[in-house]
Amino acid sequence: FRAALAPASPPLESPPLEEPPATPPLPEVASAAAGPEQDPVVLQNEQLEGLKAGLEAVRSREESPEEKEAWWLLNRAVVNYCGSAVGTVAANDPSTANHMLNYDQIFIRDFVPSAIAFLLRGESDIVKNFLLHTLQLQSWEKTVDCYSPGQGLMPASFKVRSVPLDGNNEAFEEVLDPDFGESAIGRVAPVDSGLWWIILLRAYGKITGDYALQERVDVQTGIRLILNLCLTDGFDMFPTLLVTDGSCMIDRRMGIHGHPLEIQALFYSALRCAREMVSTDDGSKNLIRVINNRLSALSFHIREYYWVDMKKINEIYRYKTEEYSHDAINKFNIYPEQIPSWLADWIPDKGGYLIGNLQPAHMDFRFFSLGNLWAIVSSLATQKQAEGILNLIETKWDDIVANMPLKICYPALEYEEWRIITGCDPKNTFFTYVNQNSLPVLTKLYSFGIS
Description:
Distance between the termini: 10 Å
Mean pLDDT: 84
Strand content: 5-15%
Low-confidence stretches: 11-36
Largest sheet: 3 strands, antiparallel
């Protein structure tokens, strides 16, 4: 299934339009970007044939009692709109029935694991309906204090509501009510929704063979709107996406504002998927060129500056600061004193990972599972880095996995650090919610990474 989630062959990245980075790519980084000599088309066809064989094997085997119960629960979560299934609710928690929460809505990011399950089982209609209906909701006229979101923004979630038909209280019609963050806790716009939508669209086509969906004019327009929103020039000097806190799976304040790894890994994957799906014509040549340039700069930036292992830690300890020059080694003016005391003893000799965030004078050394695993799945991490991440997880199994599914991050925020970074959020205390709690779907991504 990894072949359907992300293009398997390394990206055919062209050099950036501007001057190359002052520091050339490391040998292993450059070789990984170049990729193997095998024809990408042949490699992709081989993997898709393997995907088809694997799907047939999955669908033909007998389901275990646990799987049958899981499907029963998942089918109970299905939401219908005008007689057709359009997604699954985020959660079915009876304790929240009397509270004004949005657990009964269909979230784009939360539906992706369910969509994978439906596609594996051959039930693709619900995924197709979901893709088309969320496309119809793209950038509706929603405002927060008289301000509207950018064109191309996908909603975080939507809900099926019944409203009176033409003022008649006896006749009703169903409508979709999207939430772009104007009703969300904290009023945060979902940066990852459009990225997940592009990734799921490609997976749908690869598994079902229904490429006509991604070739539709409205779908092509939706892809381009998302890309335009992400690729728009701004004040940022880096190829990474600049976002606010809580704008992705970590949807509460956790100190990830800036350039969080999760968003960058999804951005990289979505760019590669979109490049493959965008229709080739004279109007798309410039867009493809921009995508290629961004992929080249983004992959170098993440592989070079986000990677941390024992060798890199020793380099940071020897960093000079306040360097003013084009060829500065400490480009982000990182002070060695900010390296946390737990890191040197925690990181194994034969392992490493991609840090959670990088900004001027700041490196977030926390290990975030989704960002690192998706970097492996999407080939954002080099082969050597992917092996290092998996070695780290295996070596530090008791910290990252233990007796529960993979933890969202390590280590957790505690005490004064928790008070300052989360704003005293009672939902994000130690070992709760996104503060080192777990998500079962991360185990699935771990298996994809191993494959």
